[in-house]
Design the sequence.
């Protein structure tokens, strides 16, 4: 275990060390302490390593992640795991806005609540939220899965292209072109697999599925009122 | 982009260190606002005397002569404390006669804040330099709000720096921009509010002053603002005995709230809270959009 104290080590020095890890590195287990809300911790990693951050982090933590398994023992600011490509980012507390924004792959687990715009423009990432999500979540979602074990705020899935949205609790309102979808056995299986991967316990039968009504793919005058 | 902070003490034992903690919060928000900074700091105040914070850009201004002239003009005792290019006058009775006297006799002086419990310091420069200029770290008090400014809507001057004051002991800091401030300014002018700048936040401050003047509570005034203020905002507001935070319905300007048994704190980012005593055990949350959060001091001077 390599421990880095962010009260003593400069952020850029830490991120450079993490970026410089060669393929097959033996330095696979990292612990970061005293993050104190610093932005851009552990961004741009591309190595199969474990990184644990003890404390609250600022914006864009674990952005653009590839391969790495990053755990935040605290709360995080805006844009955690933004544009994640692969690997796992786990937040033990709450996440602020735009969690996993535009993520292309990998898994993002938020054990607490995520606020507004969770999964905005998601492009293949799987997101599992143990609590609730704020307004405009999965806005313009294109691919992937968003699982919400609590409630969803207003305008869920506004202008969604594709992606599966599973919500166990109440949905304040659906956004433009987002609609409830049938929940078949294959969806329940997929949902169970997502929850198992995330290590979050929830009753699969409580969830409803939402997705794209596919009316806004192209401009059509009959749908003008929906834009 | 701007940074805003607020600290409201529940434990009296922390009051001598209010300025120290507020200065640390302001410094932590330097990156969000390097152009100018300001604070409003509240003490227990006095029923018998009013306070005015005045500003003049000339560091050699003869404040003692001003205080003496005001004392002679008003026939009341006037106390004077000088802090760099600001001065605090403590005037027996209310502040209204003193403000009228200043308007008539010394229009070159700018009133930064007035009331019974509040002092206001704001100036151009990096937040750390501004805090040092007024020795914020050694000020005590019950609660305070602060702002670090990256100007987008109007010029970088002392006058355009936040906080904005609009009534006795009322101060507002704002991260965001209002889009209907011109029309709202005209609406408020017709209702008797006088403006000093073209700044959008001054409009919001005077809007809340107007609503409070109509008899609304702090929470009711904020809720009325949800309907009448168009734009992006996270607000932190101080009154003689209260502290409030509110975000617009879109909530695209950041905010964090934290609360312990000893204090309530607000900051644009967690970094602004990270040095507060006991923050590791605090309840931390992101204020919801379109929701007014209000705290009042028990036994406050102006309940």
Sequence:
């Amino acid at each position: 275990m390599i421990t880095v104290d962010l009260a003593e080590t400069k952020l850029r020095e830490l991120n450079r060390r993490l970026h410089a890890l060669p393929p097959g590195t033996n330095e696979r287990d990292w612990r970061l302490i005293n993050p104190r809300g610093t932005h851009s911790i552990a961004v741009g990693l591309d190595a199969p390593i474990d990184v644990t951050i003890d404390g609250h982090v600022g914006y864009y933590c674990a952005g653009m992640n590839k391969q790495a398994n990053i755990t935040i023992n605290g709360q995080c600011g805006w844009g955690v795991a933004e544009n994640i490509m692969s690997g796992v980012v786990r937040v033990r507390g709450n996440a602020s806005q735009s969690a996993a924004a535009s993520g292309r792959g990998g898994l993002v687990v938020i054990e607490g609540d995520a606020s507004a715009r969770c999964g905005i423009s998601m492009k293949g990432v799987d997101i599992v939220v143990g609590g609730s999500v704020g307004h405009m979540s999965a806005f313009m979602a294109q691919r992937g899965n968003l699982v919400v074990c609590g409630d969803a705020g207003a305008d869920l899935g506004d202008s969604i292209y594709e992606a599966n949205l599973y919500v166990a609790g109440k949905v304040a309102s659906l956004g433009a072109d987002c609609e409830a979808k049938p929940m078949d056995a294959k969806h329940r299986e997929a949902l169970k697999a997502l929850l198992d991967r995330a290590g979050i316990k929830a009753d699969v039968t409580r969830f409803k599925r939402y997705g794209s009504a596919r009316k806004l793919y192209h401009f059509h005058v009959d749908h003008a009122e929906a834009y | 982009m701007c940074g805003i902070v607020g600290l409201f003490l529940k434990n009296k034992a922390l009051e001598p260190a209010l300025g120290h903690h507020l200065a640390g919060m302001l410094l932590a928000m330097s990156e969000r606002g390097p152009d100018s900074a300001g604070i409003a700091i509240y003490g227990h105040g006095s029923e018998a005397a009013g306070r005015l914070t005045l500003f003049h850009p000339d560091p050699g201004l003869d404040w003692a002569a001003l205080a003496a002239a005001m004392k002679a003009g008003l026939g009341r005792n006037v106390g004077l404390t000088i802090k760099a290019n600001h001065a605090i006058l403590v005037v027996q009775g209310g502040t209204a006669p003193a403000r009228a006297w200043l308007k008539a006799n010394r229009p070159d002086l700018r009133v930064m804040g007035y009331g019974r419990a509040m002092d206001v310091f704001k100036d151009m420069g990096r937040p750390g330099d501004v805090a040092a200029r007024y020795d914020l770290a050694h000020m005590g008090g019950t609660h305070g709000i602060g702002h670090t400014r990256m100007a987008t809507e109007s010029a970088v001057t002392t006058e355009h720096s936040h906080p904005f004051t609009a009534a006795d002991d009322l101060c507002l800091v704002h991260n965001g921009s209002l889009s209907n401030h011109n029309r709202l300014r005209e609406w408020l002018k017709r209702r008797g509010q006088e403006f000093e700048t073209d700044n959008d936040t001054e409009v919001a401050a005077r809007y809340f002053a107007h609503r409070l003047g109509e008899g609304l509570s702090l929470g009711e005034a904020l809720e009325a603002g949800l309907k009448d203020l168009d734009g992006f905002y996270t607000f932190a507001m101080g009154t003689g005995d209260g502290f409030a935070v509110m975000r617009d319905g879109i909530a695209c300007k950041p905010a964090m709230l934290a609360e312990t048994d000893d204090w309530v704190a607000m900051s644009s980012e967690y970094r602004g809270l990270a040095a507060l005593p006991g923050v590791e055990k605090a309840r931390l949350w992101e204020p919801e959009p379109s929701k007014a959060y209000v705290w009042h001091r028990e036994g406050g001077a102006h309940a």
In short: The helical segments of chain B are 18-28, 63-74, 96-105, 127-133, 181-190, 200-213, 218-228. Chain B has seven helices and 16 strands. The interface with chain A takes residues 251-252, 254, 269-275, 284-286, 288-289 of chain B (CB under 8 Å). Chain B has a mean pLDDT of 94.
